[in-house]
Amino acid sequence: MKMSKIVIGAMRFKNRKSAIETIRAAIDSGFNYIDTSPAYCYQTEDENSECWVGDAVNFKDYRQRVMISAKCTVGNGGMQLGEFIKSEGFGVRTEKKFVQMFNQSLRRQKLSCFDYYHLWTTHTMEQLNEAFKPGGWYDGLMSQSSKWKILGITSHADTSTLLEFLKTGKFKVITIPLNVINRTRAGVLDYCAENGIPVIAMNPLAGGFLASNEKLKELSLRYLISLKNVHPLIGFSSVEEVNYAKHILDTTPVDGGNPKKYITEVESLLDTNDPRCSSCGYCAPCPKGINLGACLSYYNLYKYMRMENAREAFIEKQWEDGLRLDRCKECMMCAKRCPNSLPLSKIIPDAKRSLYALVNK
């Protein structure tokens, strides 16, 4: 089964009823891949995203029309190795614990096998190496080899680290943050296209806040649809959102259109001639692990489009180490690498003041 252009994110459901309705509507719309995790929507062992996915697909012929994924991680969701949390899939660092996690996900989703399995939230080489230690995560996965088909990886790492992951040859699909205002990992796309590795674009609406502006929402989806070999992962929470995504897909040119056109339209919305970051990612790597382009994408929308919720969305994502702009020591390594010679010695301090103003009140 070929992966549909738009795929189903199962992380934003309100409850079991809406999850089932939304998933079935998405499958009926032709979206045929579901991304979930043990931690998504977790309330209890019986009320969580995995259980709701299972209820949705184990009905009539829905299971035959969709590919199901599952995942767990050796890490803690951030940059560190994690303590074992079986209910949510963190800190899975031994073969025994992996098998427990794998069987838990099968049981929750009422399945006998998965189409895809992902090494989840893996952002550093330390985490990757931990997964492949003898008697660890990967050995656990291989012990269940008859119950899954395709191995993928999900990561917020920078481009160079992502390419190191892919060059191991272990992963046949990758999930990365990618949207029209945060293109810092776009350097991965050519490698993936050349090697037949589908790219699943998580955070297509930057955690949802781009949806608060109708034009940005439309441009965000059209941009990702225009990219060859890229599959926007949309965290649907209602049937209405499914219908909107289907409308955008159906009204986008068959060839996807020109990605640069959509970027230009977004830049025109910013309505300023100030020198500003384009999220190209060439300033990486940062010695503090900061994804400067991603940080400044929030700053641009807050400053130039006066989107207050851009700042709020940035603060809500401070669990992600790459967005910890407050850790910046202003060493200006980024300025030396910036292809546009931006005045980052002025931009970064202003971005810190603006984005953290809610915290510093």
Observed structural traits:
single chain, 361 residues, TIM Barrel, eight-stranded parallel beta barrel, 8 strands, globular
Task: Compose a concise summary of this entry.
The chain contains 15 helices and eight strands.
Shape summary: globular
- Please tell me how large the radius of gyration is: 20 Å
Q: What is the level-2 CATH architecture name of the largest domain?
A: Alpha-Beta Barrel
Please state the average pLDDT score: 93
Which helices and strands occur, and which strands form pairs?
Layout: E1 7-9, H1 16-28, E2 33-35, H2 49-57, E3 67-72, H3 95-109, E4 116-119, H4 125-131, H5 137-143, E5 150-154, H6 159-166, E6 173-177, H7 189-194, E7 199-202, H8 214-226, E8 230-235, H9 239-250, H10 259-270, H11 292-304, H12 308-316, H13 333-337, H14 344-355, H15 357-360
Parallel strand pairs: 1-2, 1-8, 2-3, 3-4, 4-5, 5-6, 6-7, 7-8
Helix pairs in contact: 1-2, 2-3, 3-5, 8-10, 11-12, 11-14
